[in-house]
Amino acid sequence: MTLYTMHQEPDGGAPPVLVAHGFSWSAFLLAPFWLVAQRMWMPAAIVFLIDLGAAAAARAGALQQGAALLSMVVVAAFVGLEGQELRRKAMARRGTRFSGVVSGANEIEALARSGEGDRAAGTGE
User: Fold this and answer.
1) Distance between alpha carbon 37 and the CA centroid of its chain, in Å?
2) CA 85, CA 61: separation in Å to the nearest integer?
3) Residue 36 · residue 44 · CB < 8 Å
């Protein structure tokens, strides 16, 4: 079972957005692109600049290639570990409100357990 936090848009018309707790493999593997997809522009720019700087330093000989790669992996691991929390904070800044915690094997089951499953399917209210 995975824990999800539910976040509701201010108007309340759309079904809640579920954000899973835990490591995000997509955020780890594609850190700057994942951040852009989540509309987190500043963290994406920072990660991109760190990666670019490490690659440039390695190419110039100021940093060994192994150390440059290690720094990129560490930054990606941080984004993978903290990405969902960064996403929650970005959603709160955009005005969504926290509406609860729910668990489920996947997002569909968690949404059904929350009682919002009928609304998301268009059969409720």
Assistant:
1) 9
2) 36
3) yes
34-91 pLDDT, tens per residue? Answer: 999 999 999 999 999 999 999 999 999 999 999 999 999 999 999 999 999 999 999 9
Q: Which are the contacts of 108, defined by CB distance < 8 A and separation ≥ 6?
A: 117
Q: 26 is in which domain, residue-wise?
A: 2-121
Q: Which of 36, 32, 2 is nearest to 19 (CA)?
A: 2
Is the entire prediction scored with pTM above 0.85?
no
Nearest residue to 18 (alpha-carbon basis) of 107, 79, 120, 113: 107
Q: Which of 102, 99, 124 lies closest to 111, judged by CA?
A: 102
Written as six digits, the tokens of 64 are 């060994």
Q: Is the Cβ–Cβ distance between 2 and 110 less than 8 Å?
A: yes
What is the spatial distance between Cα 43 and Cα 61, in angstroms, rounded to a whole number?
A: 27
Number of domains forming the structure of the chain: 1
Give CA separation, 7 vs 26, 29, 90, in Å: 21, 25, 11
